[in-house]
Automatic annotation (TrEMBL):
It comes from the Bacteria. This is DUF72 domain-containing protein. It holds the Pfam family DUF72. InterPro entries: DUF72, UPF0759_sf.
């Protein structure tokens, strides 16, 4: 049954983006992993993964359009993030096209559009400028995110993540109001046909018993955000324990050594994203322990990893899978 769930659909053409032949070690790891564990990367359009995920060299645009079936054929890649809707909402047809290219057991972690998760409207260079009138607006969130995702992905949904961007000082000064806005938003949303709704933050001021209470009341999850703007992973675990039992949602975004604004530095250092240049075995070991406990209790785990976590997301997935199994 497990092999059936994660057996990739046959590729229709011999030409185009093809998967690498499966590695014997990866096949063994995949067989040992619980089917409740969905590991993947934050996207799939990286030419530097040649020989790791793709057979042959392909452009980023080609991989973005047609690389997903080859990605989903990798035995350890049972999930993937869709982040591009953060910048502009996607249509149900976009999500449906993705869902049709992956096996039944595959799951998507989808990031909500910035039009509802940014307190400030962004300029062309990505900086916040003016107050956003649609910040945490339930109508916009339902219309431009929840409904098209549910219609398009259906039972391929893993986690629908509201990643709340850093708040401006005036909002940080009145966190009770922000908590009330978030509570109202989550209560107004319909339940997805599969998976969970989760909240990821970028200010430590969100973290505490009030967030736990509102998430439990709204039947939503806390998304572990492994990012230098937040406390280290062990310091976030008490919040997870307070919400137990429940599914796990985690996004490993950026290695802490680069600091809170280190995306550009990480991208420059990691180049083609084809090697683990800054391995972080401590984070992997802690995350593996949480995943084992979650799956062992019969709960789903949805974990996506960025290239900027250790230098190469597929290799991070392999190392994390090994830590889960060996543990």
């Amino acid at each position: 049954m497990q092999d059936e769930l994660f057996e990739a659909p046959p590729l229709r053409r011999a030409r185009g983006v093809q998967p690498v032949p499966p590695d014997v070690g990866d096949l063994a790891l995949a067989k040992a992993l619980s089917p409740r564990v969905h590991l993947g990367t934050s996207s799939w359009s990286y030419p530097g993964w040649e020989g790791l995920v793709w057979a042959g060299r392909h452009s980023e645009s080609t991989l973005s359009r047609t690389g997903l079936p080859a990605y989903a054929a990798h035995p350890l890649l049972r999930a993937v993030g869709i982040d591009r809707g953060f910048y502009r909402p996607l249509a149900a047809s976009d999500f449906e096209r993705h869902a049709q290219q992956v096996p039944r057991g595959f799951r998507f972690t989808v990031k909500a559009p910035s039009l509802v998760t940014d307190a400030l409207l962004r300029t062309e260079d990505g900086r916040g400028q003016e107050a956003n009138p649609l910040f945490l607006d339930p109508v916009a969130a339902r219309r431009d995110f929840i409904e098209p995702v549910c219609e398009g992905l259906g039972d391929r949904i893993g986690a629908l993540v509201f990643q709340l961007s850093p708040l401006p000082p005036q909002r940080l000064a009145c966190m009770n109001e922000q908590l009330d806005l978030l509570h109202d938003l989550l209560l107004a949303l319909p339940r997805p046909p599969a998976g969970v709704i989760a909240v990821e933050v970028r200010n430590a001021e969100w973290l505490g018993p009030d967030l736990v209470a509102l998430l439990r009341d709204a039947r939503a999850c806390y998304c572990l955000g492994l990012h230098p703007k937040l406390p280290p992973l062990p310091d976030q675990l008490p919040l997870l324990r307070a919400m137990w039992p429940g599914p796990l949602v985690a996004r490993w975004n950026l290695n802490r050594l680069h600091g809170p604004f280190g995306y550009e530095a990480a991208e420059k250092r990691y180049g083609e994203f084809d090697a683990l240049m800054d391995p972080d075995p401590d984070t992997r070991a802690t995350l593996a322990r949480v995943i084992r406990g979650t799956a062992g209790a019969g709960q789903e785990a949805f974990v996506t990893i960025s290239n900027k976590a250790e230098g190469c997301a597929p290799l991070s997935v392999r190392a994390l899978a090994r830590a889960i199994v060996d543990g």
